[in-house]
């Protein structure tokens, strides 16, 4: 169990990069904001109806996943820059 608690999502060298990469700076709130632009992007694409249905099904599942983890949102996820 102790070994499991030391696992990280990204390789160790990512955590020591300066400046930190966007994946360590931007959180779930920023990710959720991308969904606002999604209809515009999908309308402009040449994706077939069949592929669009599959994509929308996956996006729906992803949004459900994000809504199940509301602890990732809010002021507690931010720190002052100074």
Automatic annotation (TrEMBL):
Keywords: Chromatin regulator, Nucleus, Transcription, Transcription regulation. It comes from the Eukaryota. InterPro entries: MRG, MRG_C_sf, MRG_dom. GO terms for biological process: chromatin organization; regulation of DNA-templated transcription. Residues 16-79 form the MRG domain. GO terms for cellular component: MSL complex; NuA4 histone acetyltransferase complex; nucleus. Signal peptide: none annotated. This is MRG domain-containing protein. Pfam families: MRG. It is found in: Nucleus. PANTHER family: MORTALITY FACTOR 4-LIKE PROTEIN (PTHR10880), MSL COMPLEX SUBUNIT 3 (PTHR10880:SF15). PROSITE patterns: MRG.
């Amino acid at each position: 169990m102790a070994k499991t608690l030391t696992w990280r999502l990204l390789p160790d060298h990512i955590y020591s990069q300066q400046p930190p990469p966007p994946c360590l700076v931007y959180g779930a709130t920023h990710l959720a904001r991308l969904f606002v632009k999604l209809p515009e992007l999908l309308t402009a694409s040449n994706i077939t109806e069949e592929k669009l249905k599959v994509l929308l099904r996956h996006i729906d599942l992803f949004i459900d996943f994000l809504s199940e983890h509301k602890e990732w949102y809010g002021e507690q996820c931010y720190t002052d820059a100074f």
